[in-house]
Design goal:
Layout lengths: L4 E4 L9 H8 L6 E6 L11 H8 L6 E6 L7 H7 L3 E5 L6 H10 L3 E6 L17 E5 L16 H12 L5 E5 L7 H6 L4 E4 L1 H4 L4 H12 L4
Parallel strand pairs: 1-8, 2-3, 3-4, 4-5, 5-6, 6-7, 7-8
Helix pairs in contact: 2-3
Length: about 220
Amino acid sequence: MRKVKLAPSLLNADFSDLREAVSIIENVADVIHLDVMDGNFVPNITFGPLVVQAIRSITALPLDVHLMIAHPAEYVEDFVRAGADWISFHAEVTRHPGEILGLIHNHTKRAGVVINPQTPAARIFEYLELMEYVLVMTVMPGFGGQVMIPEALAKVGELKEEASRLGLELEVEVDGGVKTENLEMVMAAGTDIIVVGSSIYAASDPRQAARDVRAILDGEG
């Protein structure tokens, strides 16, 4: 059976107790998803390298840092030093994604490109060989707790098909509005890595919610 990775997002977690927030998902997560927002590319502001560094100090899980920022190249090194293992940035902020992907790889980290719901998958086809993963947004970036745009899931298959045609190993990650009710639809699209945030941390019992998500991904739900 295909292994689908769980990447819980800490966006809706209680940042006054990061150790507890991480402990809630540590036994079921494959990677921790961290949404960095700058108040420029997106209207919201979240956190920067210092918080990533704090999370790095309390978990051995890989840290998947999603840069929702206008000038990612300027901050790659800061997030590498903070402990990021995966770094992704938005296709919409640059005409030359290859340069930023190269910068990430120069630091021996996994590199990814993010595409918004309105951005066609074909926009990044020519760069697929330069990345380890693509993050498909199924909501507009900037806020947690939004309703999924299911039409965006079609891009998962398009990306996988093009990667296969090119003989590439590419993981596709989905982020936005994922809940237990639509998890199976997201999996059926061919998704390799699924970001789940508010449906875990906003639940009355976040630990049980995290276990429930893991069970569905493992085919036990």
